[in-house]
C-alpha cells in the first residue's frame, strides 16, 4: 500500500506580476515560499527548459496540512499554449467571489458553477460558501482523461488512491478524507497537454518510494524520472520519482520526511517574490 499525502498542483506561469495579483488579491492565498534557480530542474519541475526559473508556493495555510499551488516561472518565456488536460481546482470561498468583484476580476459560470480564471486560463471553481478556517478550503483538482476505467485502474489499483465517488463519466479519488481529492473526468477524446501541462504532487514515506518504483515497473507504467535527489539552495534535499498516468498526466511522489523540512513557511517569501518581479528584465 502507498500512504500518500496530497501536496500541490504545478502551473507554468508567463506573467508573474498579474499571477501574483490573482492569487493574493482574488483567491486570497498567501505566498508560503519563493525559490530561485539558475538552471533547469533535473526532474523537469519547470518543464523542458534549461534556463533560469523560479518556484513560488501559494496557499491558504502551511503545506504540511494544506493543498497548495506551485507557480513555476521560466525567465523569458512569455506564453504557454493550453491543452484540454486541466479542468480546474475547486475552492470553497464566498470571500474569493467578493474579492473578485472588488478587483473587477471576471466571475464566469458553467453548468451552475461559478469560476474565475488565473492568468494563462487556469480555472478555479468557487463554492459560494464561507471559507473554512478549521480545514483546507481547497477541495479537489479536476483532470481530463480519455478512458475513465483505465485511469481509475491506474490511480486506484496501482497507486492505491481510494475511490470516494464514481459516476459514468467521472470519479473522485484521494488518499484520505481530510485531503484534497483528484477528480478524473472522461472527455471522450485524447488528452492534449500542449505546452502549459502541469503536474500533481504527493508525498509518501521515504521507504515507500522504491515500492512505487517497483509497482510501476512491473505494470509497465511510465517513469519519467527515476528516483533522484533534488537540491534547493539553502534548504533540504528531497528525493522524488516522477510518473505519468495512462493519459500522460505527470505525477510526483516526494519523500515526506525531507519535504516537511523543505516546505516550511518562509516569512521572507512575500517580499522576495516582489523583489524578483521588480528586478526581472526578461519580459522587457
UniProtKB/TrEMBL annotation:
<dbReference type="Pfam" id="PF21207">
    <property type="entry name" value="GLOD4_N"/>
</dbReference>
<dbReference type="Pfam" id="PF21701">
    <property type="entry name" value="GLOD4_C"/>
</dbReference>
<comment type="similarity">
    <text>Belongs to the glyoxalase I family.</text>
</comment>
<dbReference type="InterPro" id="IPR059155">
    <property type="entry name" value="GLOD4_dom"/>
</dbReference>
<dbReference type="InterPro" id="IPR037523">
    <property type="entry name" value="VOC_core"/>
</dbReference>
<dbReference type="InterPro" id="IPR043193">
    <property type="entry name" value="GLOD4"/>
</dbReference>
<keyword id="KW-0677">Repeat</keyword>
<dbReference type="InterPro" id="IPR043194">
    <property type="entry name" value="GLOD4_C"/>
</dbReference>
<protein>
    <submittedName>
        <fullName>Glyoxalase domain-containing protein 4</fullName>
    </submittedName>
</protein>
<feature type="domain" description="VOC">
    <location>
        <begin position="137"/>
        <end position="256"/>
    </location>
</feature>
<dbReference type="InterPro" id="IPR029068">
    <property type="entry name" value="Glyas_Bleomycin-R_OHBP_Dase"/>
</dbReference>
<feature type="domain" description="VOC">
    <location>
        <begin position="5"/>
        <end position="129"/>
    </location>
</feature>
Amino acid at each position: 500500500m502507498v500512504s500518500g499525502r496530497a501536496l500541490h498542483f504545478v502551473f507554468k506561469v508567463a506573467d508573474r506580476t498579474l499571477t501574483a495579483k490573482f492569487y493574493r488579491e482574488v483567491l486570497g492565498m498567501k505566498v508560503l515560499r519563493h525559490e530561485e534557480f539558475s538552471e533547469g530542474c533535473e526532474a523537469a519541475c519547470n518543464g523542458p527548459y534549461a534556463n533560469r526559473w523560479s518556484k513560488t508556493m501559494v496557499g491558504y495555510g502551511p503545506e504540511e496540512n494544506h493543498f497548495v499551488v506551485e507557480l513555476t516561472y521560466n525567465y523569458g518565456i512569455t506564453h504557454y499554449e493550453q491543452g484540454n488536460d486541466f479542468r480546474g481546482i475547486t475552492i470553497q470561498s464566498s470571500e474569493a467571489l467578493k474579492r473578485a468583484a472588488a478587483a473587477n476580476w471576471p466571475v464566469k459560470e458553467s453548468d451552475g458553477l461559478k469560476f474565475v480564471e488565473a492568468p494563462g486560463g487556469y480555472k478555479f471553481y468557487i463554492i459560494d460558501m464561507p471559507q473554512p478556517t478549521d480545514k483546507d478550503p481547497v477541495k479537489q483538482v479536476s483532470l481530463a482523461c480519455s478512458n475513465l476505467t483505465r485511469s481509475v485502474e491506474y490511480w486506484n489499483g496501482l497507486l492505491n488512491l481510494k475511490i470516494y465517488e464514481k459516476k459514468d463519466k467521472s470519479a473522485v479519488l484521494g488518499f484520505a478524507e481530510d485531503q484534497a481529492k483528484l477528480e478524473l473526468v472522461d472527455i471522450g477524446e485524447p488528452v492534449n497537454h500542449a505546452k502549459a501541462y502541469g503536474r500533481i504532487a504527493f508525498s509518501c514515506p521515504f521507504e515507500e518510494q522504491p515500492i512505487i518504483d517497483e509497482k510501476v515497473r512491473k505494470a509497465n507504467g511510465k517513469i519519467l524520472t527515476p528516483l533522484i535527489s533534488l537540491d534547493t539552495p539553502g534548504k533540504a534535499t528531497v528525493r522524488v520519482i516522477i510518473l505519468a498516468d495512462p493519459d500522460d498526466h505527470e505525477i510526483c511522489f516526494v519523500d515526506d520526511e525531507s519535504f516537511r523540512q523543505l516546505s516550511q513557511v518562509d516569512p521572507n517569501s512575500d517580499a522576495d517574490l516582489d523583489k524578483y518581479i521588480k528586478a526581472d528584465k526578461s519580459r522587457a
